Amino acid sequence: MTHKNFKNIDKVTYGRGSFSQLSETIEPVRKENNGDFVFIVDNYFKDKPLSKKLQNKPGDLVYFIDVDAYEPTTEQVDNLRDAILAKNGLPSGVIGIGGGSVMDIAKALSLMLTNEGSSTLYQGLNLVKKAGIYHLGVPTISGTGAEVSMTAVLTGPEKKLGLKCDWTVFNQVILDPELIESVPVDWWFYTGMDTYIHCIESHNGIRNNAFSLAYGDQALQLCREVYLNEDAGQTAENNDKLMVASLMGGLSLTYSEVGVCHAISYGLSKILGTRHCYANCVIFQHLEDIYPQGVKEFKAMVKKHKIALPQNLSKNWDDETLTKMATVSFNLPFMWNHAFGDKYQEIATMDYIKNLFRRL
Amino acid sequence: MTHKNFKNIDKVTYGRGSFSQLSETIEPVRKENNGDFVFIVDNYFKDKPLSKKLQNKPGDLVYFIDVDAYEPTTEQVDNLRDAILAKNGLPSGVIGIGGGSVMDIAKALSLMLTNEGSSTLYQGLNLVKKAGIYHLGVPTISGTGAEVSMTAVLTGPEKKLGLKCDWTVFNQVILDPELIESVPVDWWFYTGMDTYIHCIESHNGIRNNAFSLAYGDQALQLCREVYLNEDAGQTAENNDKLMVASLMGGLSLTYSEVGVCHAISYGLSKILGTRHCYANCVIFQHLEDIYPQGVKEFKAMVKKHKIALPQNLSKNWDDETLTKMATVSFNLPFMWNHAFGDKYQEIATMDYIKNLFRRL
Question: Does the model's ipTM exceed the 0.85 cut?
């Protein structure tokens, strides 16, 4: 057995107000390439105070990107790359300010600025040929773990799959809990639950180990403090904890693997465009037979925060749609293997997976 | 307030048997400099099976170093550096296989191979001028957190102080719990308690935050499983956990600060040469007024494993010795500030510190 050799984020700044250190953090990097930075910012902030605090210089390119319409696509990243290079050549670095989608766009862009052709060529493990340029992530919503992961998940014409390699990992992350204060309660819930589900799935499977368990246990403990216990809710103290939980949940799954919920979630998102964290919540509520303790606790958190998750979605899906979704999920064998062990192929058949979709 | 921008270990491999991946891990680095690696190995392994599994090539230099005699010194590192450069020029990298002392020698050596003059010139924060060469750490005893920290603590003619900068951090760490199986029970205890004390001190002070607390809480939980609970002891499962606890304890203190025990410990080690982890244990038992919960739990662990800690050491110390030790401790203001807050100078006077030494 080969043990994973995990690439860390090079540098991490954590603390309230730390976003104000952005310009001094990137200053030494401006000697690379054309001296300019590309800012990829969640469109949500376009007219918000944050847009006045970007600390960008003249020459820097600032793109406000609407990530609500759809999840990041290969075409979107390719077009952005072409536009940036046409404008002013190779920049010094890319800064992503937003949630998981913005993180993924920034990470993918960093790689695609130095690797030729379409990003569809690089969807998979270690297909990227050259190191990307410096890239820095500033999460403004916590939970996906995209700030720490070695993947930049993109939806292409063929597949929803990440550009996955050591170079994908951010050079720098700035974790400023003040930036997640304005997250609407429903998305605060869905994205935090992504962390929660990462840890439940990472724990319950053959690839867990003392490393992934330690990170996962602590992230779960933090999730309970943020979403379940007496002092639960969107408080300053809980926002401090949620940012750490997201990071630790990401490290837990990196050293282990996700499972059934994520496999189904990828199928749902690929075919219907459902946003990742929300899709996970829609699915996880129906997996009590697979993750009994986790789903029970999840439902208590849903109830506590009065989150309305949709039911009976599948009644409008014909067999063709079900088959398409199940095919995407079926083709994620490492997730099924982790969840069900070496005989996973006997359990996770197309029929079994289609029936999981029928639960939704 | 400026938030720390913490440099991570570039890459981490974790798992039983992962040490066997050493040669493939360093292979790509052999294209740097002269193509050879320097192995710094704890002398304990000289005739043990591990010495046959180093995976070194002809041309690589292997030094077995006795770290029992004294803690790493500036002179020792300078002499090693001179010998290595005289032999075959600048190597591709340095590999440290051992405990905290060996880690510190490997880290310091990596820096001193590219920075001129004596290592005494660089004792302090950010005094190192140039990046060192690639360096890789393989802990064979867990607890000091030296595998993750940004310091290489050396004792010089003037001071016991680390070479502290981003370049000090390892490029690669291999965490193989099989390597800590043969640690004698007393040192298994002392070094593990270094982690425990890191977390207690990191928690109890003004520099703590959600990041350091999350790492510290999880490391404390793991310490309880390894040293206190029903299944405590040197089992395979606990060794798996201890390696993770050491890493997390190191991250907790990096994002916060150590406190009174470490300040006193540095004084004791500098003047009497007492080994760090052991010194911490000797001191911590007497700090119940400062860390009441921590010391209570510590004593329960001492009792459980029948560890005999010396008493009444100070009865043989004259005032000159006490003053020397207290002076070293007094000159660590960041530790006293963390522990006692902004009015620390009113509390941690020379008299107060000398009285702490008299407790030993």
Answer: yes
